Amino acid sequence: MSDNTQEAQEYLVEVLATTTQETVVTPLDNVVTPLDNTSSKNVSGEKKKIVGVFYKGNEYAKLNPDFVGCVEGALGIRQWLESQGHQYIVTDDKAGSDSELERNLSDAHVIISTPFHPAYVTAERIKKAKNLELLLTAGIGSDHIDLKAAAAAGITVAEVTGSNVVSVAEDELMRILILIRNFLPGYHQAVNGEWNVAGIAYRAYDLEGKTVGTVGAGRIGKLLLQRLKPFNCNLLYFDRIRMDPGLEKEIGAKFEEDLDAMLPKCDVIVINTPLTEQTRGLFDKDKISKCKKGVLIVNNARGAIMDTQAVADACSNGHVAGYSGDVWFPQPAPKDHPWRYMPNHAMTPHVSGTTIDAQLRYAAGVKDMLDRHFRGEDFPEQNYIVKEGQLASQYR
Ligand SMILES: NC(=O)C1=CN([C@@H]2O[C@H](COP(=O)(O)OP(=O)(O)OC[C@H]3O[C@@H](n4cnc5c(N)ncnc54)[C@H](O)[C@@H]3O)[C@@H](O)[C@H]2O)C=CC1
Question: Listed GO molecular functions (predicted)?
Fold first, then answer.
């Protein structure tokens, strides 16, 4: 082994050792403003029951004071809610008829949940929740709720629009680079004490000059396209709605009217649509066969947009050269799933939209929306998914 190689390996070990230390994190200066915990008055005097469903922070909960997206952090709104006389139940226990969520359904006025540990609000649960007024998604994507049942019951469904779009766009850019540079096999080599440059280089490419297409160019899709512009790629997008021509020109992306016509042009496909009746299972065997052989797919939207088996098959036979993002199977990924053996795929627990910056944004949004809801006010700048019995147009 050359001296240089040894040095490089020592450096890697050092980096890994540093990053696994678990000391309390000093919050970064540029993270969004922490929650304002000053009390506003409960003007109506009505006492509400709010149920929050989040994942448990466990031993990580105390390591960062800004880690508000877990059960222990409770979005940082406990003191504020309780000072106004409201009851705030927070739990991670959400599945089955014996769960804490289920036990608190019958008199809950508000349920807050996140896509990272979703409380499935089914038609059956909505029937039991006689007092339910508001379902808030701390984040974006409300497909864990039976939206038609919520509309029929007159329950408002809203999400904190834009709260984590930067986190997702950055994450997508990272995943594209990880896949195109064949990063993961190299990482595994280093961790396993191997060093074989050829085994990485034979399928590592530059992003420059490649064609990247996003399926869905809403808030996240547009941010991703903006971030890709300096990489000098050919940018394409498919969406129900065409962008304003000025913005399209500024971003430098070409609109594709027909998804089937866009797919064969793309070296990289990124999926950025919500999960709806139109997009569920959209990437099935047929759609994937329309993609270029060797395509890389990044899906930071929902796993159910993909036909898991079709993606796994296409990865196995090389039609898809790399996939990163969600697929629809129970987490953690089963040990014997073919996914584990793909040469180039990147899957992590669902963290793309739940960075600390995002948590502080959606926590502040939830606080503001609750405050206004209790005052009988609207929050027009947020995405209403269901309002006054009507589903938002893209969910119909
Ligand atoms: N992985 C994560 O942590 C996160 C994932 N998401 C997912 O990303 C999705 C998109 O988020 P945003 O960009 O903020 O939403 P958005 O509402 O701003 O954009 C969605 C875009 O998809 C388009 N669209 C919807 N249905 C379509 C269809 N059938 N065909 C073509 N285009 C269609 C819409 O016209 C819109 O431009 C969310 O619904 C959520 O599922 C969002 C945040 C975090």
Answer: formate dehydrogenase (NAD+) activity; NAD binding; oxidoreductase activity, acting on the CH-OH group of donors, NAD or NADP as acceptor
